[in-house]
Structure formats: C-alpha cells, structure tokens
Write a structure and sequence with these properties.
The complex is a heterotrimer. Chain A is mainly α. Chain A contains twelve helices and no strands. Chain A starts with 6 loop residues before the first helix and ends with a helix. Chain C has four domains: 113 residues, no CATH class; 115 residues, no CATH class; 165 residues, no CATH class; 37 residues, no CATH class. The chains are: A mainly alpha, B alpha/beta, C alpha+beta. Chains in contact: A-B, A-C, B-C. Chains A and C meet through helix 4 and helix 10 of A and helix 15 of C.
C-alpha cells in the first residue's frame, strides 16, 4: 500500500488536526473575553513559522524531518534531536489521552474510570497507525463534512442568546492577557502542525506543502474562531476562563423549540472524531521517530507498549481539573513552544547555513 | 490460527465484562427531583426540601408517577443532598429540576451565589431551573399537595408563567443568575413567592420581587415597579395599561394593549458626573374604549392620549428609579456595566466607589409611544 | 491420469469411453454404418440431454446415406464428413478424451469414425431450462421484467441484446475440478481497464476447488479479503443492472447453473444504488438514495443509541419523555441491554423462519410475530413498549437494503456491546472503528469508499443523489481506462 496522499486529503487532515481537541478545551483562556483577538494574533504570528517549516521540507524533498535532522546535524546530534522530538510527541500523545479521559469523565457517566477511555482511544489509535496516513486521509475526507455540519449547525440557533456586551469592552485588561492567550493558542494547537513535517513526506512537492499547511491551519483556525466567538458571546469572559469545558457549557443553553433541548452530548461526539485523528497522527509521528532512532523496520508492532506508557504518563500529568487549567495556561505554552518553534528554528538555520556552505 | 482467534475472543470478553457498565443506570430506578427548596434553620444547619417524582408499578398494568416531599438537614447543601441517599437508598436524579426556592432568611443573610454553587458546578444538574425567593420559609411552599396528580413545582412554574405574561415578575434561570452574580456592575432581582400564591383557589394578582445588593436581599418591589424594571431592561413582555382619558367633557377609561417596547440606555460622562439617557419606544394598540363617545379618530384626541400615556410611563420609571437609587442604592439595571463598556478607564477608577456614585446619577427619560391601531374597528361603536 | 487421446481403432475408442463412463447407464452408444461399407461409426451422447430430432434427421440419416466411395474422397475423411455430410450448425474436432468426456456431460454428441484420429463434436444439446421471468429477489415497479436463468448461453444472449456493441467481449473459462463448471468473463473493451480484466482472469484461474455449485463460491474465492464483513463482489439477477455496470467499466462473471451474475469491483456506495433509481424521477430517486443511507445508519445504531441515552446520558431526554419511558419500564425485570438483545434475536428468528417456511404456513409467522412480540410480551411486562418500537424500527430499516442484512446484524451487536460499556462515547468509538475499517478496504485495487466523500463534487452527483441526465454532463468513470469522463451532449439549450 503506497503512502501517497492527495493534496485534498492532506488539507482536510490539517484542518481536522487543528480543530483537534480545541473544540472542547478552547484556546486563549486567559484572555477571557478577548480570546478571539488572541486567536487572530496567534495565526498572524504563525505565518512566518509556517514558511519556516515548509522551507525545511523544501530543501530536502521526499524526506521526513527525522531524516533531515540526521543529514543536517550529523549522526550524533541528529540522533539527539530525533530523541528530543520523539519525546515531545510522546508527551503530547500522553496529554491527548488524558484530555479525552478527562472529557468523558467530566461529561459522561463519572463512574467509569479514566483508564478505560484511554485504552479505547489507544486501540483506535493503533488502528489509525496500522492504516497509515493514506487511510487517514481517505477517512478524513469522508468524515470532515459531516463533522463540520454537526458542529456548526447548532450555533446559529443560539443567536437569540448572544449579547454583544459580553465581549465588550475590548481589551479591558490590556494587552498582556491577549498576548499570553495568543502564545497559548500558538502552542496548542497551531504549531503542533510541526508534526506534519515528520509525517507528510510523500506529498507531491514542497510548494504544495506550504499551501496545504497555511490553508489548512487557516481554515482550522477560522472554524475555531467561529466556535470561540459564539462561546464568548453566550457565556461571557469569566465563565470562559473558569469552565473546564467551555463548548459544553455553551451548547447546554441550546433550545430549539422544545424538542432539541439537551443535545450537547450528541454534538460533542464530534470531539471524539477529531481527537481520534489528532491522536493517530501524533502516534504515527512518535512511532516513526522511535523506528528511526532504533532503526526498526516494523515500528508499528511496539505501539501497544507505547500506548500503555503514554496512558500512565497522562494519568499523572496533573491531578485534577483545576490543575489542568493551570497546566494549560502556565506550563504548556513555554514547554511546547520550545519544541515546536525554537528547535525547528535551530534546525532551519543550520540547514540554511549548511546548504550555503555546501554550495561554495 | 485457532489460538489467535481464541485469544482475541478472550481478550474482548474480558474487556467488556470486566470493564463494562459502571455508569449504567436504569432509567426507572432514579427518582426525579422536580423542585428544591433551601432553608437555614440554625446557624450551622441547612434544610433541604425536595419534591420527588417516583415511577412505581401498580399491579394491573399501568404505572403511575407520584410526587413525594422529602426533607433533610445538613451542614452544607451538598451534605444534606447526600443524606437523601441514606434515606432513600438511591441517588437523586437532578437533571429535570424546574424550580429552586431559597428561603428569605438565606437570601438576606448569605450570598445567593454561595448557596447555588453546588447546583452550578455539578455537571448533572442542569442550570435551567428558575430561582425564586420564598416569602418566609421555603419549605412551606412544599407543604401540601393540593391538586392531586400534579407536582407542586409544575404548579409553581405555571404560576410563574402566568405572572410573567402579565409583566408582574421577571423570573430568571439559574445560569442567568450566575452570570449576573459575576458582574460587578449589575445586581439581581428575583421573584418572591409565597404559599398562598399557589394554594388559594383564586389566583393572586400581586407579586413581589426581591432586590439584591451584593447578592444579599435587601428589599422588595411590587407589581408596577417590576413592570418598570422589565421595561427599563428592554425585556417588556406586553400587558395592559389603563388610562383615564378626559377630553372635552368626555371621560373614558381606555385600555391600551402594549405590543412591545424598546429601551436603550446610554451612559454619558460629563465633567465628572454620570448621566444616563434612557430612550423608550413603546408600541400600543387601543384595545378598549369604555366610553364610546370619545372620538379617538381625531388627531388632537390621539395626541392627547399619546402624551398622557408617555407621561404615565415616564412617571412610573422615575418612581422606580428613585426608589432603587435612593432607598435601595442597588444598581439593578446595570448602569455600571454600561459605563464599563463605554468608558472602561472611568469605570476602573470609580468601580469601588460605585455605591456612592450610583444614587447621584441623573437620569433623563424620553418616552415615545406609537399608537399602532385600534384593533378591528377604527370607528367607535354607535 | 495421463492424457488419453483418440485412437484410430473404433473399438478401442468405445472401450476407452465405456471405461471412463462405467456404471453410467445414461450414456447411449449408437453404432452406425454407412453405405460405403468400409466405414463404421459410433455416436455417443447422454440420454435426455440431446435433441433427438436433430440427431435423427441431421446426423444419423445423412451418415447412413453416404454413397461416396472412400477412394473418391480426396481430403481427410473426417473433414469430408464434417463439411459435406453432417447437417449441424456447429461442428468441432477433438483429439483429447478428457475434453470429449467433459462435452458429453454438456449435451453434445460425439461421433467416432473408424480409422480417424480425431472425433467430431456435434452441437445437439437440448437442456430444458427455466422460462425467462422476473427475478423473485429483485422486483421493480418500473423496469424490464427479465431475469437471468441458469443456462449460461441464455444469459450471454440477454447481455448481448442489451449492449449491442462489438466491444462487448465474452471469454470462457472452466472452474471446478469435479463439476467443471463453465463460466464466462464479460467486459466492454475500451471501457474496462486491462489490468482489471487480467486481474479477474488470474484470480479465477487460481481457484482450486472441487465444485462450483452457485456463483457465490466464486465470489468468495476471488475476494480481496475473504474474511471481511462487507461484500467486495456484487451479484445480481437482472441483465439491466449488469449492463449498466458494464458500461461503467466493470467486469461481469457469468456462471453456469447460477442465475446470479457477479460484477467486479463492487464499491460501498453500490449497496445504496439500485437500477430503479434511473427509471424514476431524479428527486424521488435522490430522496430514496439518501433514505437508504439513513436507514443503514438507523439499523445499526438505533438499539445502541437508545441504550446509551436511556441508561447513561439521561439528561438528553426531555422531562415528559423521561417520565413516559420510566413508566413503561417500571416493573420490567430485565435490564435494557438484555431486553434489546432478546428482542433483536426474536426478530431474527422470525425473519429466518419466514424465509424457510413453505409459503402456505408463512402467514402464521406474521401472526405469531405480532402477537408474541407485540401484545403479550408488553402486557406481561416482560419487555417494555419502547423496546418493541426500537426493534421494529431497526428491523424495518434493515429491510430497505437487503444486501446489508448480514453485516448489519454483526455491526449492531458490536455497537450495542460498546454502548453498554461506555454509553454514547462507546458508540462513537464503534463508529470510528467501523468507518476506519470501511476506508481500509479495497475491492480489486479500487478504494472501497470511492465516491462517498462529499468533497469531490463530481463524484457526488451520481452516488448519493442522482442528477437528472441533462445535467450530468460529466459521468464519473473512475474504473474506466484513463478515468474517462463521458460528455453527453443532451444538455438543454439556453442553460
């Protein structure tokens, strides 16, 4: 089974990936009612970063970022970088598992322990891994319109409950929470698209990678912006910061006639689909990294072990949802930005220098 | 091959059997809570009264739902609720709760938000229930089941809806209450209910509402004032206004049916002083003219009637505002929020001083009435 | 067994055949002599399979009337007979005894000639076959009432009549070591891709089985993945269906003794497309197609979603509905899951019993079903009334797509299990797993889920809905060579 995916499939994968878990754990919490500004700001900051990502791939067509590290940094440092990147993806995998566990724990019946949900997502992730990017692309194309439809349809019905003064006054608390919110959005989910450098090695050419990346993240961010704006207009800034699952609280207010009163869980099932996709891609990247570091041919076989490890780590990441909010706001942005922006930046600079020198 | 299939089968069976069905609750096992009442009976103890709907089976085929009243005490609201399980053997199912009644003492002594905290935090409890203040003790409202077969909470809901249509009260849902509580620049107003409102044969026509300041109840307002309150909030629901029109030598009682109103409040900040400009536009229909000789086709008659109605509305609003500003000193209309939205810097400076500033705000009310028509007949009945 | 060949001696030949067909009393050995005394012949055929008239008039009579002397014949004697004497439309020669033995079983008669190394094979078959009638498994309101029969020649003629093009090719193969069933591979040359045809031929020639009784045997033996839940080879009893599939670039496999013709490849979307969509208006057809897709989702999801909502996520129900369901369930001793499984099993029992019973008793099944399932069970408080409704919806929506009944049962059970474990989230996990499994499948190299994505607009117009012909100027033919997009010129003017 060849691993080629078409441009359209890649685009849809990027869109779904960007939406990812951010439907439920909406970004830019700390900016409260100015979160929408944070999101726009985050995307603007992302544009040069995306250009940097695609430039890395342009220089070495047909290779994924693990191999590029080896070429650029030499054998030893290349391996070091690969280990660092793989470790980061592994931690993201753990965080995603924890995310789903928390979500179902909070929303669904609370008697089911978190581990069960994590194991189910893990099993699905292994399915995704064995299918490969190819199959994930096909799957995304089929499910994307349905997910979008189910997700966005309820929002127009909430218009009567929107009050514009929940978003006013703009920038009441000044620029600093907005910037913090933008950084948080950048780190999760926008620059997580770095993982596509590892995974999208068989797109036709690097120019289309740039287009796909920018367009995909743009559309994904747009959808997020719509969701976040609706949420802000309905539940206001304070609630936005303090609720663990903001979209859930928003959708609770939905009443269409008297019939569709309590359908938030049905709509949030789409969350399971998007997190499945994000999780599969992260898992593929992690397993590819491990395969590359240890020179394994059949890297898919050890995935169950990695899943169990990740589930355990996810479990101990933070103990309860308050710590969870604090984790997302304070701990994750600097950590993730280092791995997703700073290190690729180093990679890019050195690759530029190397090709300059090799040309001479 | 056989081994593989067998092991896969065993794994799946184990997974399903050992991991399954924790959250599995049969639908007919849970008693449904329809209404709750919170009281404080001593310094440390809360009294929770719930009305519970239980489906039980009657031999002979059909099942019946009865409502029962349960009570429990506890140091906190949640503890009292938990104790219900001891009594009942089952968790209570809160998702259908329609009303929450808070006793007067609780509303006066404690912050409403603290009492409601549990209901907002819990995922299962939906924040759609209406919050009502009881006239005296909340538990009294659930005293008896007057009409057999119908839950008291549903009756309360009906009463609320009727009163709402007459513009006598403004009921709020729980999540709206929580939203208001977190706003600095706006205070709560909640309807008050007393047992005689539901238990009497003849429905009562007068309803009171409680005014809050810093989430504690400080006073009550009554019918007409509530109406002005709703009008100023841009939440007018309609209703009737009756005027005595004297024109020439004809004296008539005219009933206007209010179709709707739009109210816009604009804050102005001039020379360190706050001014609120309130523009009210009301659409009215002449519904009934008691003295048919009053010829309201004529323009001057209509102008007079319009002006009279405008004056009435303005006077009512002014009365209400002065009561709220001078007597209660509670910013129930959200002037603070409006200032915050328009003049954020000014609000930041004056936020903590708002209690002193609020009574001194000048309000300018402009009322405009559109007489939209006179129902079916444009002529008087001769 | 070594290859036996025809020997020159007539006696030898008859002995060989009699050996092969020992204990077979249905073979007739007719010895003949012609007027030129030197020649003796033997006619061998299976009794009842041949047209006696033709044998009498066109074979035996002319042979007996041969007057030419051996010396006068200047060509090979067997050629002389086949060209001048035998008055039959299809005559062939053969040297191989195995071939001859096979053809005797097909109704052909064999003529052995003294002194000749070859035998003549005469087309004299007269096998009684069923009348061409509307196929009972696929009836239409509007459309041709013709169905395939069990004779392969008839089926081939039906197809040729529909697709009257010289590009329509038929190639015969034999499958089955003992049954030696004749099958025919049919395709339209410039439309079907060569790799597909070669792949089909190769897979069929790889079949090593003793007997092919019905075309389903072939279906299972040439599939991409024999264990998969969903069909990857389509089958139908109607020539118009096969003809339209051939036009789209598919390959048909016609099997002797089977009225069901296989079409290859078979995509998921074809479950929901029937020929009648093209014989009715486009709005009605589009509505029906969407309805079928919705019914498929209903039939696998409804029990699982019901269990998920009623047992896990009670908040979804509005108060009144909650109270009614609670009242309906009060007093029912078994938990909802067991109820669901019992009801669905009962439904399947009824269905299977209805299929097996002879027609006269069939009425009783429906009465029993209504009484047992409906009235008595609910009155005795063994099951709750909502569960009966759920079962009814599930079963009936399953019948809108008869091809998917078997898979629906399995998927339904899987989703019920998952839903019992984790509520609606288990159901979502299950759906993700099923959709992923579907996307992984291929049918003869083509993605199984081709045409189902709503993003590629052109693929969408003939799959989920049906656009009217004047607007379908680009008919997708992904299966065809070079992915031709046909352009039809019958668009209305002025559009």
């Amino acid at each position: 089974m060849n691993n080629k995916i078409t441009d359209k499939q890649a685009l849809v994968i990027v869109i779904l990936f960007t939406i990812g878990t951010s439907i439920a754990n909406t970004p830019g919490r700390i900016a409260k009612e100015n979160a929408w500004i944070s999101i726009i700001l985050a995307f603007i900051i992302f544009i040069p970063i995306a250009l940097m990502y695609s430039r890395i791939l342009e220089k070495f067509p047909g290779k994924n970022a693990f191999q590029i590290c080896d070429i650029v940094f030499g054998k030893f440092f290349g391996k070091v970088f690969n280990i660092i990147f793989t470790f980061h993806f592994f931690v993201t995998v753990a965080a995603l598992l924890r995310n789903l566990g928390d979500f179902i724990y909070g929303v669904g019946p609370p008697e089911t322990p978190m581990e069960v949900n994590m194991i189910f997502l893990g099993l699905l992730g292994i399915l995704g891994l064995y299918g490969g990017i190819n199959i994930l692309g096909r799957w995304s194309i089929i499910t994307f319109p349905i997910i979008l439809f189910i997700l966005l349809i309820p929002f127009p019905f909430l218009i009567p409950q929107m009050k514009i003064d929940r978003v006013l006054p703009v920038m009441y608390n000044g620029m600093s929470p907005v910037i913090k919110g933008a950084l948080s959005t950048l780190s999760f989910p926008i620059t997580q698209s770095f993982v596509f450098l590892m995974v999208f090695e068989n797109i036709r050419d690097a120019k289309s990678f740039k287009k796909i990346l920018l367009r995909g993240v743009f559309i994904g961010t747009l959808i997020l912006l719509v969701v976040v704006s609706y949420t802000l207009l309905i539940i206001g800034g304070e609630n936005y910061l303090n609720s663990y699952l903001t979209t859930f609280v928003t959708l609770r207010r939905l009443t269409i006639g008297k019939l569709f009163e309590r359908v938030e869980i049905i709509i949030l099932q789409t969350f399971v689909y998007t997190i499945f996709l994000k999780f599969s891609i992260m898992l593929i990247a992690t397993m590819k990294g491990i395969g590359h570091i240890f020179n394994l041919k059949n890297y898919k076989a050890i995935s169950p072990i990695i899943i169990f490890l990740a589930a355990n780590i996810g479990y101990i990441l933070f103990s309860n949802s308050m710590e969870g909010i604090e984790f997302i706001i304070n701990v994750w942005p600097p950590y993730a930005l280092t791995f997703q922006v700073v290190l690729p930046f180093i990679l890019w600079i050195i690759s530029e220098l190397k090709t300059k020198f090799s040309l001479r | 091959m056989c081994k593989k299939a067998l092991s896969a089968f065993l794994i799946i069976i184990n997974l399903v059997v050992m991991t399954g069905c924790w959250g599995y609750k049969e639908i007919n096992e849970l008693p449904i809570v329809i209404g709750a009442a919170i009281d404080k009976i001593s310094k440390d103890e809360y009294l929770i009264t719930v009305e519970v709907l239980k489906t039980s089976e009657i031999p002979g085929g059909t099942a019946e739902s009865k409502t029962t009243i349960l009570q429990m005490t506890g140091k906190t609201v949640f503890e009292a609720i938990r104790k219900f399980i001891v009594k009942n053997g089952r968790f209570l199912y809160w998702a259908n709760m329609k009303v929450i009644i808070i006793g007067k003492k609780v509303a006066e002594d404690e912050e409403v938000a603290s009492v409601l905290d549990l209901f907002f935090r819990d995922v299962e409890i939906r924040s759609e229930g209406r919050v009502i203040i009881a006239e005296d003790k909340a538990a009294d409202i659930f005293k008896e089941n007057m009409k057999k077969g119908e839950a008291i909470s549903m009756q309360i809901l009906d009463t609320m809806d009727n009163a709402k249509k007459l513009s006598k009260i403004y009921p709020l849902k729980m999540h709206e209450v929580i939203d208001l509580v977190s706003l600095r620049g706006k205070n709560l107003v909640l309807p008050i209910l007393s047992p005689k409102d539901i238990y009497k044969e003849t429905p009562s026509l007068s309803f009171k509402s409680a005014v809050f300041k810093k989430n504690k109840m400080i006073g009550t307002i009554i019918d007409e004032e509530v109406r002005s309150y709703r009008l100023l909030l841009n939440e007018e629901d309609g209703g009737l206004r009756i005027e005595d029109v004297v024109f020439g030598d004809e004296n008539s009682k005219v009933t206007y049916e209010i179709e709707g109103s739009k109210t816009k409040i604009r804050p102005l900040y001039k020379d360190g002083k706050f001014i609120m400009e309130i523009d009210i536009t009301t659409d009215a229909i002449i519904a009934e003219v008691m003295n048919y000789k009053l010829d309201f086709i004529r323009k001057d008659v209509r102008d007079y009637m319009k002006e009279q109605l405008e004056n009435t509305i303005r006077d009512n609003c002014n009365e209400f505002l002065s009561k709220v500003q001078k007597d209660f000193d509670s910013d129930v209309l959200g002037f603070g929020e409006l200032v915050k939205n328009k003049y954020p810097k000014v609000w930041k400076e004056n936020e903590n001083n708002w209690d002193n500033i609020f009574p001194n705000i000048t309000t300018i009310i402009n009322v405009k009435v559109n007489l939209k028509g006179s129902a079916l007949y444009s002529k008087i009945i001769e | 067994m070594e290859e036996l060949i025809v020997s020159e001696s007539l006696k030898e030949n008859i002995k060989i055949i009699k050996n092969l067909f020992s204990n077979n009393d249905s073979i007739v050995y007719r010895q003949l002599k012609s007027k030129n005394v030197r020649s003796s012949y033997c006619l061998i055929y299976t009794d009842g399979m041949v047209n006696n008239n033709i044998i009498n008039e066109n074979v035996i009579k002319p042979i007996m009337g041969i007057t030419a002397k051996l010396s006068e014949v200047d060509m090979n004697y067997i050629d002389y007979i086949s060209l001048n004497i035998i008055e039959i439309n299809n005559v062939q020669k053969s040297k191989s005894i195995t071939e001859i033995a096979e053809l005797i079983g097909r109704g052909k008669s064999i003529l052995f000639i003294e002194g000749s190394e070859e035998a003549l094979i005469l087309d004299t078959e007269n096998i009684k076959e069923r009348q061409i009638a509307e196929p009972p498994s696929e009836t239409v309101v509007r459309g041709p009432r013709i169905g395939f029969t069990e004779a392969i020649n008839t089926n081939i003629t039906l197809l040729t009549k529909l697709v009257n093009s010289t590009d329509l090719k038929f190639q015969y193969m034999t499958v089955g070591n003992t049954t030696k069933t004749k099958i025919c591979i049919s395709y339209i040359e410039n439309v079907a891709s060569d790799e597909m045809v070669n792949e089909v031929k190769q897979r069929i020639s790889n079949i090593d089985i003793d007997g092919i009784i019905e075309s389903y045997y072939i279906e299972e033996l040439i599939r991409d993945n024999p264990l998969s839940l969903f069909k990857t080879v389509g089958s139908t009893e109607r020539p118009d269906v096969v003809a339209s599939k051939l036009l789209e670039g598919r390959v048909a496999i016609i099997c002797d003794n089977s009225a069901f013709v296989l079409t290859v490849p078979f995509l998921f979307i074809e479950y929901f497309q029937i020929n009648e969509d093209y014989y009715h208006g486009y709005m009605f057809s589009s509505f029906n197609r969407i309805l079928r897709i919705v019914c498929f989702l209903l039939t696998i999801s409804v029990p699982a979603v019901y269990i998920g909502i009623v047992n896990f996520h009670h908040e979804i129900l509005p108060t009144n509905l909650y109270i009614s369901i609670a009242q309906a369930r009060a007093g029912v001793p078994i938990p909802t899951v067991i109820e669901a499984v019992v009801m669905l099993t009962t439904f399947e029992i009824l269905r299977e019993a209805g299929a097996r019973l002879p027609r006269q008793i069939g009425q009783a099944v429906s009465i029993v079903g209504a009484l047992v399932l409906g009235e008595s069970a609910v009155n005795a408080r063994l099951v709750s009334a909502p569960m009966v409704i759920i079962t009814a919806i599930t079963g009936i929506s399953g019948f809108t797509i008869p091809n998917l009944i078997t898979t629906s049962i399995i998927l339904r059970v899987l989703l019920i299990c998952l839903s019992t474990t984790l509520g609606l989230f288990g159901y979502s996990f299950g759906l993700i797993a099923i959709s992923f499994y579907l996307v992984c499948m291929t049918s003869f190299g083509i993605n199984y889920m081709e045409y189902t994505s709503l993003i590629d607009r052109h693929n969408f117009e003939d799959s989920v809905i049906r656009k009217p012909w004047p607007y379908m100027d680009k008919k997708p033919q992904l299966l065809a060579k070079d992915a031709i997009r046909l352009r039809f010129k019958n668009r209305r003017k002025g559009k």
